[in-house]
Design brief:
The protein contains two helices and no strands. It is an all-alpha fold. The protein has a domain of 43 residues. Helix 1 runs antiparallel to helix 2. The longest helix is centred in the N-terminal third of the chain and has 30 residues. The C terminus is likely disordered.
């Protein structure tokens, strides 16, 4: 019977490194997918900026997603705020 992945004592450093790389990879893919869907579905972004955002996200992959995340956003309109 084989010992579960995280309880294994053989090759401990390699297992921990592989685990953290897996977590990092999944996080980067999640950020990439979120930024792509956010750019495509956000109604406050005009068409030209959507095209630029999608091209940026798709060509630069994770770096493009991080750049998109930190781009300034237009403030929400005052009509949407409760009185």
């Amino acid at each position: 019977m084989r010992t579960p992945f995280l309880l294994s004592t053989a090759g401990g450093a390699e297992d921990v490194t592989a685990f953290f790389l897996l977590i990092l990879s999944l996080s980067l893919v999640a950020i990439w997918a979120w930024s792509l869907f956010h750019c495509l579905l956000n109604e406050r972004i005009d068409t030209n900026k959507k095209v630029l955002g999608v091209v940026l996200i798709m060509t630069l992959a994770h770096l493009g997603s991080i750049i998109y995340f930190f781009l300034p956003r237009a403030a929400e309109s005052q009509d949407a705020l409760p009185s």
